Amino acid sequence: MSIVFFVLILIIATVFSNALDTKIKFLPRAIIQIMMGLALSFIPNFNHFNLNPEVFMLAIIAPLMFYDGMNTNIVKLKRTLSNTFSLAIGLAVVTIILVGYLGYALLPHIPIALAFALAAIITPTDAVAVSSVTENLDLPNEAMLSLKNESLFNDASGIVMFDLALTAFHTGHFSPVLSIFNYLYVFFGGLIVGWIVGWLFVRLQLLLIETDIDNPNIIVPINFIKPFAIYLLAEMFDTSGILAVVAAGLIQSTQAQSLRLTSTKTQMVYKTTYEIFTNLMNGFVFILLGVSFPTVIYDITNEGRQVSSLGYLILVGIILYIVMIIIRYLWVTLKLANIRIRPADKVLNHFLIAINGIHGTITLSMAFSIPIVLHGKIFPFRNDIIFIAATVIILSLLVPSIILPLMLPAKTYSYILEDISTYRQKMIEYAIKRVHDADEDPVETQAVIATLRSQQSILQRPKRNATYKILQKCFNLEEKLLQEMVDNGEISVKQQTFYERMSLFQSFQLHQSFIQHFMYRARFYFIKLSHRFKRRIKRVDPLVVTKKFNNARDELAQVENEISPQIFAYLREHLNADNRAEIHWIEEYYRERHRRFQNNTRANEIQEELFINAFQNEYNFIQEQLGKKNISRELASLLYEQVSNDEWVYMQNDSIYA
Questions:
Q1: pTM over 0.90
Q2: Considering only CA atoms, which of 507, 511, 503 is closest in space to residue 480?
Q3: Distance CA 323, CA 314 (A)
Q4: Is the four-CA dihedral 467, 469, 475, 477 of positive or negative sign?
Q5: What angle is formed at CA 221 by the lines to CA 219 and CA 227, rounded to 5 degrees?
Q6: 102-127 confidence digits (pLDDT tens)
Q7: 391 CB neighbour count, 10 Å cutoff
Q8: Which residues pair with 377 in a beta bridge?
Q9: How far is CA 573 from CA 472, 476, 579, 643, in A?
Q10: Which end of the chain offers a freer environment for a tag, N or C, measured as fewer CB atoms within 10 Å?
Q11: What is the DSSP string of 213-241?
């Protein structure tokens, strides 16, 4: 139960931090999540928290890296492959060596193997963290592409070097030649294992598609299992599990064209579910950092050393962070990575690539994966390494957040937020007009129109008093229409009285409180049972009663057929921005009242036809506006996506419109 409670709290904290991120624009999401973790650390059950390092890489990092690989543009990756490997392997290895020796010089009391382990931990960059810092800034495309592709592979470089450093520390032996061969085996072996197994998984999915077994209940679980299975298999062969899942994700990306044959429902469910899952996993990592931070500080300050050593560890973290920025800047300036940049923008782009070497998930995961116990004793200097790594992570997030807005313009779009709302409103009105012009059953037409209009006022609630005022005007209009029908000889006075009694009864119900309505319904059912009991005593034929009831309902239905269209027309005439929610509620009330007296077997078919035509007309509207150049292609794509999502939701849930 404690594990379930712990995970539930983490999920709530992640969701809450994501909500805060939408309001707090001046801080990266990762920093907000770290602060959330710090707040959680004050909860008693979260005190002195220690993460199990054995499951961290498997449970959190493997699916995250697979998702990154799956969303990588394989064409752009091929175009920049030499630069990617220069940054992910060459720069990573050089950084680890230089920072390792510098770390050993600054911390001479720790073994040199652990100094290199620390360097391996703080070298990998994180594309997700970069995106969270730069999402509102206009970062040059080439610089962003280089950073993203670098982070995809330098994680493996850091992990392999980290494992080599820990092995050297455990055994006390280090062979440069053997380490190079081991590095190549682990690196490329992981790629090969991931490539082969990833291809087999894709073939399995294609086979399921070809045999019409592409059900979300089958495909989605298989794809969720994939990164865990591939990671474990690669680790069994002593290769890089992280690179294996990255390679499998890239295979998934290359086969995207073939996998489009998968049903729309499966793709939507899989994509949405995986996005939510990876978002939670990223949030978990930074919240865990915040939760663990007080424990690490407590352990450092209670190891028999002076409290000032904590300040020295912060200083070490600052020095190592600055040195890594310098190494990155020199690497691209010396053209060891030949990035395609215009000469005028060269200095700026080189600086951006240097300062955007932001550290996050992988750095933290490797720090936590240091064994807690070694040979029956507490692993030496574990807390020091974690604390320095955390310092580097926070610096790498904060420094760009402060400097980049001063250097880069805010991200610009070919449209403004108001354009989305404006053209969505126009699109819906366009579709509504076409639905109305179809001249189908008026009630079903109004049902479809009301659903389309609900997209415009979904966040509005009808005001009670305003609703009753409009409703009273509708009741007055009904009385007037009834009287005209009596005067014209269309209905009898008896039918008029019966209809007015029914309207009065429903109006009375609308004004009741919940308790009054409950008591009235209880009284109604009691009277209904009493009448049924009396009929049995008097031996009244139930068929006669049913026939009388059906005749009365048919009479009401005839009156409704005349009155309802005029009520709907009246409501449409008086619809405006101030009473939209109230009128939509009243339309729903009249529509449901009308349905009670109708027996239209084609109602669902009519609605389905109208909805399909409405969606097609929304597509036509977007295409028309794009052709007239009233909207940009980016805005058109956004509107297309919204219509596609609306259409998918309707097709999957069309029963609720019945």
A1: no
A2: 503
A3: 14
A4: negative
A5: 105
A6: 999 999 889 999 999 999 999 998 86
A7: 19
A8: 374
A9: 16, 16, 12, 27
A10: N
A11: ---HHHHHHHHHHHHHHHHHHHHHTTS-H
